[in-house]
Design goal:
Layout: H1 13-22, H2 27-38, H3 50-63, H4 69-95, H5 100-120, H6 126-145, H7 154-158, H8 164-192, H9 198-219, H10 225-245, H11 248-252, H12 260-276, H13 280-283
Helix pairs in contact: 1-2, 4-8, 5-6, 5-8, 6-8, 6-9, 6-10, 8-9, 9-10, 9-12
Length: about 290
Amino acid sequence: MSHSQSPWPFERPEQLADLLREQGASPDECADLLPVLHRLPEWQAPQPEPADTRRLLARLTTELPTLSPVRQAIRAHQQRRHANFSLLLATARAQVSLFGLGFWLVSALVTLVGSVVVLSKILSDQEMVLRASGPLLAYLGTLVAFRGRGARVLELELVCPPSPLQLVMARLVIVLGYDVGLGLALGLVLWAGGAEHVLALTLSWLMPLLLVVGLALLLSLRLPVQAAASLAYGSWLAILAIGSITNLQALLLTPELSVLPGCIGIALLAIALLRLHADMHRLLPRP
């Protein structure tokens, strides 16, 4: 029997009897309770006085927790998020010593040579110079940061307290942080040297760098690190070479699309980080 036709069960006695039977009342109990329940609409609830409300609130206040569980959960989540960020920075600081002095000097030297070539205007296509030299830093950084697989120390890294994902992110913070810092320094040098279109030149350096890093990291899930970095950087150089002898450069390397390689690189980095845990077994050396 459907009770949806009458929202108030007292309007139909048979509905009220059905409800009582559904609650397990016997026929005798239903006969005793029905008259009482029929009189419930006549009952007027007393209106509480302000003093009654204050006494009720005072009694309930003693039963409430000191801190809201919801607020405690939100605060704990925020603390974990700050702790994760602090752990990432601490891991990155511990990983800095693994890069070696050569990485820092060679990267700075490549940036210096690029700025000198652009300011001296030895080559007419200044953006092409930066598009080729910027990703070179990504190539070097990938080789140095993720050389653990080639050195057969990946098993040792896996037993460290930071997870593999945290180690990869920490090293990416070092590589990308240093390379982006060099890119900003390059922009300042070009601006101080009176170069034109400084923003476009800086983007020509940084955006391909992000693309090569993302592609190299993604390929390293299936290939050795050196092969992955070489394939990523070589593919970009091939695109530049093809674009210089065809009309592709005018179509793909326009100022309007200068940020496209960087966006693609960030997307590839995200995919690689998401796939890292699932593909970890592929990275371990096989007997």
